[in-house]
Write a structure and sequence with these properties.
About 40% of the residues lie in helices and about 20% in strands. By secondary structure, it is α+β, with helices and mostly antiparallel strands. The protein folds into 3 domains: about 80 residues, no CATH class; about 130 residues, Cupredoxins -  blue copper proteins (Immunoglobulin-like); about 120 residues, Cytochrome Bc1 Complex, Chain D, domain 2 (Orthogonal Bundle).
Length: about 400
């Protein structure tokens, strides 16, 4: 075989191998996304398209490296009885330039494409709905600020333990954390954003239709290890089919805020059920369906406050439950560590772990009724004096 024939054959083999690598990369890019969650946001389409491009390139490189490795193992293996040294090879400048230039071009292309996608998903959309998100060990809470229908110059807040929206409505989330770093992650939306102490981070997305039947629930997870209850830090993003369906839910929540129960016990239950505070992430409470793992059970806490806790602390039931919220480290329930529960405060509405005196009173009044009989273990008049003082 002549040198020209050898050269032509080599070129032919390289072309065939290149085509096979590209086809292999294309197959990997089409097969891998099949295991992903459904694409439930407009942004997920852009992100997945970018990921497919990366998979084509990465898949082709993977097949090239593995192919050369297998070829080298077979072609250059030591034959039986061969004890000689390997060939002494020096560097190949042309090869080094090629395998440096090609990755540099690939990185540049991916950088440009990634930047375009990032700018697109971060751009301000028309008619965005802004929701304030708070991450705390170990739950997310969501607050909708809307004009007060009784006085449109004022605002009121509707709290929810679930994030609600509807198909086609652009969303902007303004996120803060009350303690450590968390990471807001909705796999179906392909959106993940760290939530860091001392900063407000944002994320934007627009739900798209994926199902015939609505509302649809998508899990919201924390993707940053934040403590022993990290794996249980799961809430839900509920997508309604249209604005009318969403408003039917929202108006119910708004009515609860505008017309709270007069009974402080019922009011306390309503506040805790709303998810305004992250108690559900740690505690067990059958009445509200809580199943936390890292905090003491609140089932029967009124009975314990009047018996074993009163004996251990010397406090009355209302004093014990009152101080447990604002000063949780004064008495640590046996079997649980100190510093796990956030220390709520009523002095700075803009500060971390703010809990108003009204909410505090109602919550304690409700917890006092967690007894075997359902009767309150506390003196509510004395509790009111403890919480509000002489005001």
């Amino acid at each position: 075989m002549t040198s020209n024939q050898l050269g032509s054959r080599t070129i032919f083999i390289i072309i065939i191998a290149g085509v096979a690598l590209i086809l292999g990369g294309l197959v990997i890019s089409q097969v891998t996304p099949l295991i992903f969650p459904v694409q439930a946001s407009a942004e997920s389409l852009q992100i997945d398209n970018l990921f497919r491009i990366a998979l084509v390139i990465g898949g082709a490189i993977f097949l090239l490296v593995q192919g050369l490795l297998i070829y080298s193992i077979v072609r250059f293996r030591a034959r039986a009885g061969d004890t000689s040294d390997g060939i002494n090879l020096h560097g190949n400048a042309t090869l080094e330039i090629v395998w440096t230039a090609i990755p540099a071009v690939i990185v540049l292309v991916l950088t440009v494409l990634s930047y375009q996608v990032w700018v697109s998903i971060q751009s301000v959309k028309d008619d965005e709905m802004t929701v304030k998100v708070t991450g705390a060990r170990f739950a997310w809470s969501f607050a909708y600020e809307v004009p007060d229908p009784r006085d449109t110059s004022q605002k009121l807040t509707v709290n929810s333990k679930e994030l609600h929206t509807y198909v086609g409505r652009p969303m902007k989330l303004e996120m803060v954390t009350q303690d450590v770093i968390h990471s807001f992650w909705v796999p179906a939306f392909r959106m993940k954003q760290d939530v860091m102490p001392g900063r407000t981070t944002t994320v934007r997305f627009t739900p798209i239709q994926t199902e015939e039947t609505y509302p649809v629930r998508y899990p919201i997870k924390c993707a940053e290890l934040c403590g022993s209850g990290h794996g249980e830090m799961v809430n839900w993003l509920v997508v309604h089919k249209d604005e009318a369906d969403y408003m039917a839910w929202f108006n119910q929540q708004l009515d609860l805020v505008l017309n709270p129960p007069e009974d402080p016990v019922a009011r306390g239950r309503q506040v805790l059920a709303s998810g305004a505070y992250p108690c559900a992430g740690c505690h067990v409470l059958a009445d509200l369906g809580w199943a936390g793992l890292t905090g003491p059970s609140l089932n029967g806490v009124g009975d314990r406050a009047a018996t074993v806790r009163a004996s251990a602390t010397g406090l009355s039931p209302e004093e014990y439950l009152d101080r447990s919220i604002y000063y949780p480290n004064e008495y640590i329930v046996p079997g649980f560590g100190a510093g796990l529960m956030p220390q709520f405060q009523a002095n700075d509405p803009q500060g971390a772990n703010y809990m108003s005196l009204d909410d505090h009173f109602a919550i304690v009044a409700y917890l006092c009724t967690q007894t075997s009989t359902g009767e309150s273990a506390c003196d509510l008049d004395r509790l009111r004096s403890l919480v509000f003082g002489n005001s």
